[in-house]
Every structure is written in structure tokens, then in C-alpha cells.
Amino acid sequence: LLGLTTIGGIMAIATITGCRQRPVPPKETPPVTVVAPAPVVSKETVRIQRETEARESSGLVAGRIAEARRAFVADEDDKAIVELDLETNTVARSTPIDARPRDLLLLADGTLAATLPDTNAIAVFAREVDGGLREVRRVKTPVEPMAMALSPDDTELFVSTGVSHSLVRLSASALEERGRWSLGREPRGVLVSDDGKRVFVSHATDTVVSVVQLAQSEGEVLRRDIGHRQFCITTLGDEPGCFPQRHARNAQMLVRLGSEVIVPAAQVMPNPPSSPLSGASGYGIGSESGGAPITMDLATLDAGEGADIKTRGMHNVTTCLLPRAAVVVDGRVIVACLGSSRIEQYGAPAKSSFTAAAFLAATQVGGGPTALAAERDGASVLVWSSFARQLARVATSIKPERAKALTKHVDLRPRLARLPSVKIGVPHVVTREPAWLRGRELFFANEDPRISRDNRACASCHVDGRDDGLTWQTPMGPRRTRVLAGQLDAAPYGWRGEHSTLEDHVKVTFRQLQGTGLPSSEVEALLTYVRSLPKPPRPTQAEEARGKELFAAAECGNCHGGNAGDRTVHDVGTGAAFMTPTLAGIGMRRELMHDGRYANLDDLIAKSKAMGTGSSLSAEDRHALVGYLETL
Ligand code: HEC
Ligand code: HEC
Fold first, then answer.
1. Which of 100, 170, 438, 483 keeps 20 to 30 A from 274, CA to CA?
2. Per residue in 348-357, pLDDT tens?
3. Residue nearest to atom 11 of ligand 1 (CA)
């Protein structure tokens, strides 16, 4: 037992910082193959010229067609790419496609690339002379392609993939695969350094930024910590008491600012079990003095030439709690705050210290801002509000004296700047149910006191409808966040299976978050959305034959059969009867069981005496079983 504990300990340390990971090609997915060669050209096409130097993808890109200013929006709801005319402020065309596009990127040859997470592909479109987009290329990628970035010379395209947690390197012209790396959980934003030597990848559920070193023959992956590792409380006259802090980061994107990479990252932090604040009430709210366990930081990493990449600082912001997109304009970082329907501007964070970022201005925009694009002159920024289906062009200039005055009010709720803006509505083609649309707004709502007292949203813990990987202190004991997407078809709910309906469960959630509660029509809308969240796509399983056999032989399938398990509580020696959790994505978890008691699968199988016959397996068989579990 001692030996295994040590292994757990080493594994835990290794995830913290500076450790090097070998590139392990994810074995589940066949190599990228070109599936749709260019069809016969029927109509002439035109190049879409890039508006700025940006090489990173976004849900929105600005471009020019023969000097006419255009914007292209990835319309996930309607399965379309929408072209907007920025001269007349109208919708020029909506081209339906067969999948939900997430991110777009203009390639050097004037074509438009799109990630299609729901079909595991990247498609490239050419703009026809008389409007409309024609697909000219499509390649399969590992499961759930999310974001893209081009190398500085435009010859290579890097793609992050979500549940299959990898970075793929492709030639930008033919989309042929040139390399692949396995990263931590839920990769999101991608950025290539100006010297083209490394690729930075942010994660939606991790505490690190992955840095892929391209120059090295084996392409090593460094992990740079952007989380808080300590939690300190001071009471008047006392020395601060500090406790080790478990944490998660939701970093959807990163941006380049001079020689630095800025990572806007939300964080929710459970009070550590050893802290006097834990257990006081639900989901980590300790006391007034303990502060809200939620922040957003602009983490700053050195992206310069040097061999060493350091995290320079964490610059605290308390108003933008679900940062979803960012751009840099004139040395200022502009962030789209999904849960508060604002864009916020920050001055470049000071290099040296862990200070608050200089808050400059905030502008209210339509609901659900998910993408930003800078315009060529830097005087305005385009904002796509995906819930309101609205493109706004917002002036970004702030008078220098105002900028100076505002930097003093760093921690205040942002005063909204009345900056001029133009709005273009994009009508729905495929209409969603009104309850679903309302439910989505509620799920991401950051500043609704009916949901939480400290501005947390459901999406703060259930990141993208999945989970933050964290264990929270609750009055019932420690509880790890459960995955929602694709798991809620059958009752009961909660780790103890104590709630026979979702309504009963969320009533308790509001109490835990000290929200005043929603009226039943709003609860119904919220649950309509939550129930509809699709099951995250899974990598196609390699036939890990031995492991699969052992899974059946050791009786694991008796309870863990199917996607959501048997939806029944069992006492498997963890203190009481708990619900069988899904094993989907289990290989990427760092905390296992309802209370996070095991740090890895080997330890769990060896020590857990009441789950099938796992604990009696030999070390070799355990290894094979772990190999199989990692493919789920
Ligand atoms: C502080 C983090 C946090 C926030 C915020 C949060 N949850 Fe949860 N959620 C959890 C944890 C932890 C569990 C497991 C709780 C348990 O079993 O007691 C959970 C469980 C659930 C479940 C049960 C899933 C299952 O398979 O049994 C649902 C449904 C759910 N949450 C919905 C929501 C909704 C809707 C909101 C917003 C109103 C929300 N949660 C906000 C942490 C959070
Ligand atoms: C009797 C039903 C049952 C059997 C049989 C069973 N499990 Fe479990 N399993 C559970 C329950 C219940 C939990 C949650 C316990 C808790 O959180 O306290 C769980 C949790 C787990 C977890 C952690 C999941 C998470 O999200 O933290 C893993 C991994 C796991 N089981 C693997 C296995 C394997 C491998 C086997 C076969 C050797 C197996 N289980 C057999 C019921 C079972």
C-alpha cells in the first residue's frame, strides 16, 4: 500500500509544473486523411483577404473581398457560416453546412478554414464570386477539433482537440498530418510563437498551459502552471494561515502581447478540506472574509526566445468570470465575458508583480458574446453575441485621461463606457425552442443572485456542460462535480442518488450557492437546456482486448455498463452508498470517486475492495485494465 501511495504522490507532483511529457500519439484515432478532394470548380472564386495579422482562430473573422469589409461568423446554432457586409451593416449571405462550426481562420490563399467538432473534421471553404461558400477540402481529425492557429510563415496549421486532448500539426495547403501530441484535459486555445518554435495551448479544465516545443526532435511538451497553489486567510492581527489549494482553470483562449502570452482564465477554488472555512456551507462559500472562491486572472507567460518559459504573473480581475474570447488592440487586452454579456478592456499587466490588471473600460453587448475580431485600424472591435445572434462593432478608443483615471478602480464592478457601437442582427434560420434558449442563458449567467450569491454560474463548475474535475466541500461531505452532458436521461441524481428529479437536485444547488432560487418556469427552461447537452464524443475505441476482457471478468461492467452506468447507488467501501459514475473520459481525471480520494486508476483498482474483483488482479492485469479504461 505504501508503495502505491508514493506513486500517487509522484504523479500528483508531476502535474504541477515544469515536468516534461513525452509526446504520446493518442492511439485511438487513425491518422488524418483527406476525405473530400476539391470538387470540379463550377464557379469562379475570390480571395478573402485578412484584415489583421492575427493567426489564431475565433468564432468570428474580419476580412476584405476586393476592399469591401466583410465579417464571417461560425453560426453553431444554425449550422451555417454567415457573411456580414460591414459597409451596409447587413447580412450578406448565410451558407448552410452539414455540421456545427466552432472556429474560423483565414488561410494565406484566401480560403476559410472551420473546425467542426461534432463531425471530427476541418473543412476549408472558398468564397464564390457572387457570394456563398464552397467546400474545397475536408480532413478528419481526432475527436472534437476546437481551435486553430497558423505558423508565422502560414505553411502550417495547428489544431487543438477537446475530448481527445491533442494538438495536431498539419500542412496548411494540403492539410496533411505532420505530427500529433497528447496534452492534458480539454485543450482549447492555440497560439504559435512569433519565432515559430513553440505552440501554446490553453485548457478548459486544467491548471496549466501546455507548451509544445517544435524544434526538439521529439517535440516535447512543457506544462506551465497558471493556478494558485496556496489558499491563505488572514484574520485581524493573525499571521496568514495558508493551505494547499486544489484548483482548476477554465482558459478558453490565449493572446500574444509583445513578447508575452496572456491567458485570461477563470478559476473556481474549493476551500481546502484543512481550512477552517470548509464545510461551513455548500460549494465552497466560507464566510464574508473568506471571499468568493471565484476569480478571473490574466496570466502572463514569457513567449520570448529564451529556453525557459516562465509564468510571470497572475493579474486578478473580479468582473469577467467566464472569459470566452480575447483580442489585443493597441497594447490593450479586450476580453469577451460570456456570462455577463460585456466586453472588458485591460491595460497591459505589469511585468513584475501579482497585481490586479489595469481595468480600462467595459461595454455591454448582446447576450452570450463568444467571439471577437479586431479591425484593421484598431479603432473598433467586432463582437459576436451568439445568444442574442448579433454582431456589434464597438469603438475601442478611450481618452487617455479616462484610461488613467480608471486604472485606479481595478476591483470595482466595471463602469460601462458608452462607446459608440453598431449592431447587426442575424435572424435564426433553424429556430430553437424558446425554453432551451432561455435555459442556455441561465446556465451561463454570471450575475444572477437567484442562482448564486457570488456571481458563479452553473458553467463555472460544469465547464462547457462537463465538469471542473474538482471536489467541493458540502454540508453532506466532499463531493466531486459530476459531468452533466449526456448523463441525465435517467434518475436518480446526485452522488448519493438522493434526488429523484432534477428539479429537486437544483433546488439544493441554489441553496449550496446561496442563490435565492429561480421560479419554476425558469427552472424548467434551465433543465431543458441541461438535459439536451449532447454526450461528449468519444474516441473510437481501439481493441484493447485484454483490458476489455478484464473489465468484464472483474465484474466492472455489472455496474459501469453503458454510458451513464446503472444509475444506482452502491456501497463500494467509500463510507456510504454512492451513484455509479460514468467512466467516459476517466483516463484524464486527477481526482477519482465522489470525494476525490484516489489520484490515479491503478491505485483505485488495487485499493478498492468492493468494486468487482479488481483488487485481486495482478499488477500486470491492472496495467492492462487501466489501458482499457483510458480509451473510454
Ligand atoms: C460549485 C460548483 C458547482 C456549481 C456552480 C454547480 N454545480 Fe452542479 N454539481 C456540482 C457538484 C459538486 C455535483 C455533485 C453534487 C452531489 O452529488 O451532491 C453537481 C451535480 C449536479 C447535477 C447532478 C448530476 C448527476 O449525474 O447526478 C446536476 C443536474 C447539476 N449539478 C446541475 C447544476 C446546475 C443546473 C447548476 C446551476 C444552477 C449547477 N449544477 C451549478 C457542482 C456545481
Ligand atoms: C457494485 C457496483 C460496482 C462495480 C462492480 C464496480 N464499480 Fe466502479 N464504482 C462504483 C461506484 C458506486 C463508484 C462511485 C463510488 C464513490 O464515488 O464513492 C465507482 C467508481 C469508480 C471509478 C471512479 C469514477 C470517478 O468518476 O471518480 C472508477 C475508475 C471505477 N469505479 C472503476 C471500476 C472498475 C475498473 C471496476 C472493476 C474492477 C469497477 N469499477 C467495478 C460501482 C461499481
1. 483
2. 665 544 455 6
3. 481
